[in-house]
Amino acid sequence: MDAIALLTRDHQEVDRLFKQFEKLTDRAQKSKQKIVMKIIRELAIHAAIEEMLFYPAVRTAALKATTRAGQKAADDILEALEEHHIVKWTLAELEKMAPEDERYDAKVTVLIESVRHHVEEEQEELFPKSRKLLGKELLEELGTRMEKAKKIAPTRPHPRAPDSPPGNLVAGTMAAVMDRGKDMVRSAAQKMMRSRADA
Ligand SMILES: [Fe+2]
Ligand SMILES: [Fe+2]
Hints:
Blueprint (H helix, E strand, L loop, with lengths): L2 H21 L5 H36 L3 H29 L7 H47 L16 H32 L1
Helix pairs in contact: 1-2, 1-4, 2-3, 2-4, 3-4
The structure holds fe (ii) ion (FE2) (2 copies).
The site of one fe (ii) ion has 6 residues, from helix 1, helix 2 and helix 4.
């Protein structure tokens, strides 16, 4: 699968989770939190592989481009990084909030709005430009690397961490180890709670 197809598939998966959230009634606190946790994980991994692999590849090609549209992609990447930055702060806040919080739903709504805006810009503008800049072969190769990177990327938002190479490659690897450790502890705790509830 090429890089753009892979990222588009991620976007669709996240939007599916957004729609699930939007369908819930106000009182469905437990389901809300479950879906939001999934959204946080999906978006953290997605942002990480864009920042580690896709964006740097596009930006490098854009800076060397001879066409105006190609050159503009370099600025699009900077804008995309700023949008990621805002999204990551929102995700980090949501991670610590309970659905009972008065501002929980509002925060999720704003998150959904900003992600939809960002995704639209990527799909309508950045991806077509990237397709021209990178070409079929490079996109295939990037796709393969991104598919692998998804399995070892950070699973939580790190708004304070560097978001471009080489800083993010180093910090991202460390963060991923820590995140995945925490995920394991959490799922073990949940399993224990469930088995207690069954007993
Ligand atoms: Fe993005
Ligand atoms: Fe994206």
